[in-house]
Write a structure and sequence with these properties.
Blueprint: H1 8-29, H2 34-49, E1 53-60, E2 63-70, H3 75-88, H4 96-104, E3 108-110, H5 121-127, E4 132-139, E5 142-150, H6 160-189, H7 217-221, H8 226-236, H9 241-248, H10 252-266, H11 271-280, H12 287-294
Antiparallel strand pairs: 1-2, 1-5, 3-4, 4-5
Length: about 300
């Protein structure tokens, strides 16, 4: 339907949200570092554009690395999700919508996220989202980061307008990064204190490296017995205790015992964290485990 023939209500709402994007860009461009922009961008996406949750992740090689999140409706859930997202860093080839957004530099609207194929199931399951939008942040022709947003907890399903608004917002974030970087370079050339922000063409967004956060994880995984490793592989595929028991021909009580031992040996608080630690090593569920779970 042509914009001019739409009811006034939706048009007015779209205009209001677009003005929110413009105001958010003004605020983000006034920040003095890219690191602060990265921290503030998800909050602005929620506050100004009308999402309930938003997350910014940077692209490092073939992996998606968490950077910042905003979910004022449940700060505890946001903190828990952030901790897990830092640990996981999924490969792009396991995240079809994100891979498409990076390669095509176009936003993607994901519907029925809990049943759709090609998604990174551990994080999608934890997020409990039904629909979400992922939009690329592009600098100098390269996708350096991704913005995710949804309307979790409201019952509202995202639509094409949400997709276009988040894309506009993400495009503005890329421009704001450039503006902040160029201001820093001018200050450096002018003799001001401090160093200019890096150009970040390699996809890094600054801040501490995350690679060292899981040192020793491989060693802890090595303490698992062969059976515990089989259970962990199936857990990573999203299998329930009942499914694991059926696949390995053991009782659910035995499965629960194995899970308790896995959590203790990995130092994980729950199943999700154990799976995140497993996936963070770059390992994948075995073909046998995947076959058992799908059968």
């Amino acid at each position: 339907m042509d914009v001019l023939t739409r009811p006034l209500g939706p048009v007015a709402e779209a205009a209001r949200r677009l003005r929110g994007v413009q105001r958010a860009m003004t605020r983000l461009s006034s920040l003095d570092s890219v690191a602060r922009l990265v921290s503030a961008a998800p909050r602005e996406a929620c506050k100004a554009v009308g999402f309930e949750r938003a997350m910014l992740s940077h692209i490092r090689g073939d992996r998606v690395s968490f950077a910042s999140v905003s979910f004022e409706g449940d700060p505890i859930m946001a903190a828990d999700f952030a901790r897990l997202a830092r640990a996981v860093r999924p490969r792009l080839d396991r995240c079809a919508p994100e891979h498409e957004a990076v390669v095509r530099q176009m936003p993607v609207l994901v519907r029925e996220a809990q049943s759709a194929t090609g998604l990174f199931r551990p994080l999608t399951h934890v997020a409990r989202t039904e629909t979400y939008v992922v939009a690329p942040i592009v600098r100098d022709g390269h996708t350096v980061a991704l913005l995710h947003a949804d309307a979790y907890g409201t019952g509202r399903l995202l639509d094409e307008l949400d997709r276009e608004l988040l894309w506009t917002f993400a495009t503005g974030v890329g421009w704001a990064m450039d503006d902040i970087t160029h201001r820093g370079q001018r200050r450096a050339l002018g003799g001001a204190d401090g160093e200019a922000e890096p150009l970040l063409n390699d996809g890094r967004l600054g801040g501490a490296e995350l690679e060292g956060e899981l040192l020793g994880t491989g060693g802890r995984l090595g303490t698992l017995t062969a059976r515990e490793q089989e259970v962990l592989h199936l857990m990573a595929e999203g299998a329930s205790n009942a499914s694991i028991g059926e696949s390995l021909v053991i009782s659910q009580a035995t499965v629960k015992s194995h899970v308790r031992h896995i959590l203790r040996k990995l130092g994980a608080a729950n199943r999700t964290e154990a799976v995140s630690l497993f996936l963070a090593t770059g390992r994948r569920p075995s073909a046998a485990a995947a076959t058992s779970f799908s059968s």
